[in-house]
Specification:
Alpha-D-Glucose-1,6-Bisphosphate, Chain A, domain 3; seven-stranded mixed beta sheet; 11 helices; 13 strands
């Protein structure tokens, strides 16, 4: 299974280098650039040792197709999606295998608004990938690569509009946070400072490898649980490598399943949201939380694109 490349509409993933390597990354980047034809592609990655290697291959291939590259370096995937949502470009590419352990990595394709591709879009990209026929431009029309820094302050200001920041600041929460040395590491302490929380960071050095499998949940939360108990923290938080998944530890030091993350989010939206959307495989805790919060829960087939389609169709 080590040499098997897993392909779906949002991208590819596999072990490096047996399944995913520079050649494969370059081909998929060329296919996506060929599909887009023109414009700028934003790129970001997590902290995996193979990430920079793959990212450089992707940048070169996009430039060879005549498109521009905006390189955000190490950045959480939700931040890159927020960037595209705020300032749309032709598309985006994320280099991160999220919850998969080393030596896995992945390439995820985003559309102009930071969403994963629709099935028909993904199918067209992979048809180009399989045909191995890519758009190439002459030397004097190559795309440029621009290195940008994510505007974290803008993100925080937008986020504060969705919550009661002053109420959070007055509570002075103490929070133990484990980003697994992943992409969220540089952002933990400024995030807590903005919301007036005391951060107790664990495993937050992006130069180091993952201290445990980067899949948040009770199986890897023992260290956070111990710190919450020892420091009497109000909360513990664990992220995966690109901060696209999160799980919690309660104030008693009990690790909570990742399946409780969405129900907790629903409870927090009581009185603010009329409808919420999730997939058919989400736990029944989501139904309970929706009932408690007075929110109508809509279910759709598995896949982010299906969820987004229903969000747009219903206005949830």
């Amino acid at each position: 299974m080590a040499g098997r490349l897993r392909i779906n509409i949002s991208g590819i993933r596999g072990e490096v280098p047996e399944a995913l390597n520079v050649e494969v990354a370059a081909r998929l980047a060329s296919a996506y650039a060929t599909y887009l034809e023109e414009g700028k592609i934003v790129i970001g990655r997590d902290t995996r040792p193979t990430g920079l290697m793959l990212q450089m291959a992707i940048c070169a291939s996009v430039q060879a197709s005549g498109l521009e590259v905006i390189d955000y370096g190490i950045v959480p995937t939700p931040f890159l999606q927020f960037q595209l949502f705020s300032q749309p470009q032709a598309g985006g590419i994320v280099v991160s295998a999220g919850h998969n352990p080393l030596p896995w990595n992945a390439m995820l394709l985003l559309n102009e608004r930071g969403r994963y591709l629709e099935p028909n879009e993904g199918a067209e990209v992979f048809n180009i990938y399989e045909a191995n026929q890519f758009q190439l431009v002459p030397w004097n029309k190559l795309g440029h690569r621009f290195q940008e820094k994510f505007d974290f302050n803008h993100y925080l200001e937008k986020l504060s509009g969705e919550v009661d920041r002053e109420r959070i600041r007055k509570a002075r929460f103490r929070v133990a946070i484990d980003p697994a040395n992943g992409a969220a590491s540089p952002f933990i302490e400024p995030f807590c400072d903005f919301f007036g929380c005391e951060a107790i960071p664990l495993n937050n050095d992006p130069r180091k490898t993952f201290p445990h499998p980067p899949e948040p949940g009770p199986e890897v939360s023992a260290q956070v649980e111990a710190v919450v108990k020892a420091t009497r923290a109000d909360l513990g938080v664990l992220f995966n490598s690109d901060a696209s998944r999160v799980s919690f530890v309660d104030d008693q030091g009990q690790g909570l399943s990742e399946e409780l993350t969405f129900p907790l989010a629903i409870l927090s939206r009581g009185g603010k949201t009329e409808e919420a959307v999730t997939t058919v495989v989400t736990s029944r805790w989501a139904d309970w939380a929706a009932q408690q919060a007075g929110i109508k829960l809509l279910r759709t087939k598995v896949g982010q694109s299906a969820v987004v389609q229903m969000l747009e169709a219903t206005g949830a």
